[in-house]
């Protein structure tokens, strides 16, 4: 499972001004991230605006991404949803060529009980051709995956290998770290607290800001994993304002603005998301000049 140690980046999906996927920019972004030293990429997670892509678009993006990565780094596909049977069918039919795992967010909107969340992931685990990384992000889904449910899933299904934990709930994380199987991976899903989570035992991060600052962020994460928190602290603190701006008016609009000013891709997003305000653009541009 060392392939998921370090920095994973939930890559954005670049769009042209007309709203179509910009595959040339996507290839440029992938090369930028690989050259920036990240350990793996996540294609079509939440940051990739997967909720606004059609099935055909998602299939093409996954295939293109695998070809562009060409096994230079490890690769994860984001496949989730609030219709368990539809999500299971999508996972079962997924073309695994070039991919190492599936990241699947817990069901949104339905607000299932913990037993419902368990049964949802059980259904996915029973059909998945690849290992599954759970994703707990209650700020988006409306329900948190409890530590007890995560540990239960980890013990019952060997192909459920880890969790991207983005609840920000340190009480939950304390319990999870204490009770999980030794080889079960906990991955930070929250850029600002990745240092703290690694200190607790997390094996790295699946990052948003890593899209724009792959070298700076992955170097900091590697220092944390080596236990050298004193050396990591200056980078951690220098990224606080940049990270805040990336989420101030919604993700991935913020990081797409940063990528635009780095010359990597444009900043269009698909509705219901909109581009950040002019005042936010000015602040992000300033931070890119300082850090990037």
TrEMBL record:
<keyword id="KW-0704">Schiff base</keyword>
<feature type="active site" description="Schiff-base intermediate with substrate">
    <location>
        <position position="164"/>
    </location>
</feature>
<dbReference type="GO" id="GO:0005829">
    <property type="term" value="C:cytosol"/>
</dbReference>
<feature type="binding site">
    <location>
        <position position="206"/>
    </location>
    <ligand>
        <name>pyruvate</name>
    </ligand>
</feature>
<dbReference type="InterPro" id="IPR005263">
    <property type="entry name" value="DapA"/>
</dbReference>
<comment type="function">
    <text>Catalyzes the condensation of (S)-aspartate-beta-semialdehyde [(S)-ASA] and pyruvate to 4-hydroxy-tetrahydrodipicolinate (HTPA).</text>
</comment>
<dbReference type="InterPro" id="IPR013785">
    <property type="entry name" value="Aldolase_TIM"/>
</dbReference>
<dbReference type="GO" id="GO:0019877">
    <property type="term" value="P:diaminopimelate biosynthetic process"/>
</dbReference>
<keyword id="KW-0457">Lysine biosynthesis</keyword>
<dbReference type="InterPro" id="IPR002220">
    <property type="entry name" value="DapA-like"/>
</dbReference>
<keyword id="KW-0963">Cytoplasm</keyword>
<keyword id="KW-0456">Lyase</keyword>
<protein>
    <recommendedName>
        <fullName>4-hydroxy-tetrahydrodipicolinate synthase</fullName>
        <ecNumber>4.3.3.7</ecNumber>
    </recommendedName>
</protein>
<comment type="subunit">
    <text>Homotetramer; dimer of dimers.</text>
</comment>
<keyword id="KW-0220">Diaminopimelate biosynthesis</keyword>
<comment type="similarity">
    <text>Belongs to the DapA family.</text>
</comment>
<dbReference type="Pfam" id="PF00701">
    <property type="entry name" value="DHDPS"/>
</dbReference>
<feature type="active site" description="Proton donor/acceptor">
    <location>
        <position position="135"/>
    </location>
</feature>
<comment type="pathway">
    <text>Amino-acid biosynthesis; L-lysine biosynthesis via DAP pathway; (S)-tetrahydrodipicolinate from L-aspartate: step 3/4.</text>
</comment>
<feature type="site" description="Part of a proton relay during catalysis">
    <location>
        <position position="46"/>
    </location>
</feature>
<keyword id="KW-0028">Amino-acid biosynthesis</keyword>
<feature type="binding site">
    <location>
        <position position="47"/>
    </location>
    <ligand>
        <name>pyruvate</name>
    </ligand>
</feature>
<dbReference type="GO" id="GO:0008840">
    <property type="term" value="F:4-hydroxy-tetrahydrodipicolinate synthase activity"/>
</dbReference>
<dbReference type="InterPro" id="IPR020625">
    <property type="entry name" value="Schiff_base-form_aldolases_AS"/>
</dbReference>
<feature type="site" description="Part of a proton relay during catalysis">
    <location>
        <position position="109"/>
    </location>
</feature>
<dbReference type="GO" id="GO:0009089">
    <property type="term" value="P:lysine biosynthetic process via diaminopimelate"/>
</dbReference>
């Amino acid at each position: 499972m060392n392939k998921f140690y370090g920095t994973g980046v939930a890559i954005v999906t670049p769009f042209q001004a007309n709203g179509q996927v910009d595959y040339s920019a996507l290839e440029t972004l992938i090369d930028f991230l690989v050259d920036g030293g990240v350990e793996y990429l996540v294609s079509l997670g939440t940051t990739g605006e997967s909720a606004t892509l059609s099935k055909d678009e998602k299939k093409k993006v996954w295939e293109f991404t695998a070809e562009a990565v060409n096994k230079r780094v490890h690769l994860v596909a984001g496949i989730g949803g609030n219709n368990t049977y539809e999500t299971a069918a999508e996972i079962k039919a997924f073309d695994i060529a070039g991919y190492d795992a599936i990241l699947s967010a817990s069901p949104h909107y339905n607000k299932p009980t913990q037993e419902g969340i368990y049964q949802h992931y059980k259904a996915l685990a029973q059909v998945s051709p690849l290992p599954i990384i759970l994703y707990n992000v209650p700020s988006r889904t409306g329900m948190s995956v409890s530590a007890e449910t995560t540990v239960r899933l980890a013990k019952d299904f060997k192909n459920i290998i880890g969790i991207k934990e983005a609840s920000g709930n340190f009480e939950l994380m304390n319990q999870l770290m204490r009770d999980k199987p030794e080889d079960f991976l906990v991955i930070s899903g929250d850029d600002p607290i990745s240092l703290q989570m690694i200190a607790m035992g997390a094996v790295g991060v699946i990052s948003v800001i890593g899209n724009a600052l792959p070298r700076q962020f992955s170097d900091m994460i590697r220092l944390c994993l080596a236990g050298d928190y004193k050396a990591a602290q200056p980078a951690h603190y220098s990224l606080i304002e940049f990270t805040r701006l990336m989420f101030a008016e919604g993700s991935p609009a913020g990081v797409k603005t940063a990528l635009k000013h780095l010359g990597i891709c444009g900043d269009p997003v698909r509705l219901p998301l909109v581009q950040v305000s002019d005042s936010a653009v000015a602040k992000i541009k300033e931070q890119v000049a300082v850090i990037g």
